[in-house]
Each structure stands twice: as structure tokens, then as C-alpha cells.
Amino acid sequence: MSRSRAPWLYRFVSDRSAQAEPVGVILVLGLVIVSTTAVLMFGSAAIGDIQSQSEIDRAENGMTLLDSRLSTVALGDSESQRVELPTTSGGYTVDPDAGTIRIVHRNYNGANDTELVSNTSLGAIVYRQGDQSIAYQAGGVWKASGSGSAQMVSPPEFHYREGTLTFPLVRVQGSGSATGQAAVTARSSGQGNQLYPSNKTYPDDTEYTNPVENGTVEVIIESEYATGWGSYFEERTDGNVSYPAPNTVAVELVSIGTLGTFQMPPETQGLTVRGMDSGHSLEDFSFTIRPQDTESSSFSNLDWSLYAEQGQQQFEIHVGGNGANSCGEDVALAIYYSDDGGDTHHGWYSDTYLQTECGEVNGKPADGDEIWVDVDLTPSSGTAPMDFQKVKNDMTHFNSGSKTLASDARFEEHSPDPNVTYSGGDTEDLALITRHYFAQMGPGFDLVVADGNNAGIGESGSSGYIYYDGSGKVVTYLHVTEHNVTARVD
Asked: What is the share, in percent, of the chain residues with pLDDT greater than 70?
């Protein structure tokens, strides 16, 4: 007796189920292989990136330590230092030719430039891994990537604040290189060389002395890390930063003179005005003049001026008059300006604005012996009208030459009403007059003291206040020294 056969549909499903087991195993094994390969590929890359970044971080920490140690060598606090650099890949090298620096004093005499520091190598100790690098250069640590950008890790020995630049220029010399873990040994040859101020001289034979009174000082650095230097200059210093060429950065510092409260300089010396903004940037200018002693008779022949001259321009502020030897006496004020060497001039005059004053000074009683004159050249509008007239005979310094009053005197560059032309007998506010001529003489000039007719002004007891808007990029004192460090990597 034969068994009945299973239906054909059952037999079909049964055969497919039997084949599914080995196919499923193969699919699972394939997925495992693919997943493992992907993990190995991408995981290895991620691990490599992490290891690479870890090495960069370790090199950065090592360079920061190197910076602190080498600064003691460069500045003379230690004869030598040895620093271990804790990396296992990448390479270190001493590159004495990495980067250069120039320091230029532009318009040092009002017209010409000179190099205070000629094109000089900075040198560097450099760590490189792939397209990334970290360097110790000029007392700072810098990091650069393959994109060409750089950033500061720790600041250089360059400090500029409140008009004073202190720059101990650290120059790296030496040789040697190493891969992976390395060590740097550094030595210094001495305390450094004073570059400014010093007994060196400008081309006109004046010495490198402070304060710096003319022109601008520009520091120009060529370096692979120029953008990092530029960011430091922009964030940490007061200066005009530019990038004149690839891998080059420059910071310009404008010299400035007297600003704020001042003691009146002695005769033939003067106040320096530097770095004024264009237009009416003078905000306040006033001073008090006193006689050499407290006797009121010392003002009997008051004949005293501040004057400035550059090229064909002549400018003088004169305070004077006879008989100003008692309290409350009128004192004449005259302002003179010429832009053609004195052939013609603008003249402004008042004999009622200023008066002698008496009172208690330094605890002494107001017994009539203490006398002075307060001169405010930027008073409130409408409080000090000045007459347009010849004033050549009233000057102390520019007291000779043509007596011709200009017929085309206009303040078109700096006047609220540029269409006004002044002629004899016209009046104008003193503050506008002073600010206009300061703008004409600016952005820099010297106001020199002239004391005529034995007037006997006691400049040491006289003082004043001057303030004007400036560029904010100012330098009055330079302290630049050169420090050579010899380093070896092994």
C-alpha cells in the first residue's frame, strides 16, 4: 500500500524554508564583515585624528613651558635652561632664519625715515606634524595650520601701553633637530644690547633719545605666523595694523607730545603737539603764566609768546601789555598766522578779554603780592570775541617783516560758514580761531616759549592743560633691547 503524497504547495514552502538557514548565516556573516571593516576604517581614522591632536596639544604645552624657561635665559635671569619636549611623533628643529623684523622711525625729522632696527632675523624653535606647526618666536608661542592662518598661544615680549613701547627682542640662534621626543638646551651670551635709547644717532646726528617727538614708529614682522602677530597687535596694543605683503604684518605707532596737564617749559623750549586728528580736534587749551617772583611789578613789561614755525607757516600766541602790574588790569591777547612766510598775515586782537588776577597761592595770603594771568584759548562760544587786525607789532618772535593784513582770510576748511571772508574790524570767537590754526599747523608741531623785554615770566611756576583728539596710536617712549639666545635641539 503506498503513502499519499503531500500537496505540491506544501512541498514548495518546505524546500524554501530548508534553504533559508544557510542564506541567513551568510547574510549575517557579511554584515559582520562589512561592519567590522567600517569600524576598522573609520575608527582607525578617528583614533589617528585623536592621537594627532593629542600630540599637537602635548607639543603646545611643551612649547609654552619652553617659553617661560627661555624668557629667563633671554632676559638674563638664568645662564642656561634645558627643557624636555614630551611628544612621540612629529619633529623639532632650530631655524635661525625663521622670520625677520624691522623697526622704522618714519618722518623722524619731519621729512625723512630711518631704520632703528634693520632687517634682522628672529629665528624660531619649531615643531611640525603634517601641515601643522607650533613655534617659539620672539618670546611668544604661535600655532599655524595648512590653511595659512596662525594664532597666538602665548604672547611675545612686546608690551605697548599708555604711550610706552617695551620690546626686549628675543632672537633665536643655534641648530639641531629631532623626531619624536626631544630636548632643547638654551644659553644666553649676556644681558642684551640696548637699541633704543642709546648712543646711536639719527642721520642728522641727534641721538636715539626719549621721548620720541616726531613722526611714527613702525614695527614690521615677516613670519609664517604673521596673522597671529597681527591679531596680537590688534587686540593687545594701540596701533594701526596692516598687512603690506604675504606673511608680513606691520604696526604703526604715532608719536605724541604734550597732552593733559603740563608745566610750562622754559624759554626756547616748547610744548609738542603730535598725532592730532584732522579738523577741529583741539578740545581744550589753557594756561596760567606767573612772574619769576610774586611782586606785581614783574608784569610791568609783559611780553610773552608761544610760537610755531614749519616751512612757510608761522603761528604765534602773544600775551602782553604795559602797565599790567596790579590786580584786575587788562592784558592784551594777539594771535598771528601766516602761510606765506610773513608776506601777509592773519591777525586777531583783544585788549579786554584777559586780566591780571591776584589771590592766595600755596597758602600765602591774598595781600596783593600774588599775581598771574589765566589764558583760556578755547572758551565758550560768544565769551571772547577777537578783532581781525594787524598784529605784527605785538608779536615777540615774528615781530618783523611785512605788516600786510591778508585780504582773503577765510576759514573754509574748518568754519561753520565757509563763505565768510574776514576783513579789518570783523570779529570771530577765540575758540574757533585757536582750533582753526591748530588744525592748519597740525597734525604735529612745536609751540616754543619766547619771553621778550625781560618780562621775567617764571615758567617753572606756570602751568597749563591741553587736550586734543588723536589717533590713539601713540608712542612717546621706546625701550628696545636685543637678546640673543643660542638653542640646540637633540
From this structure: 82
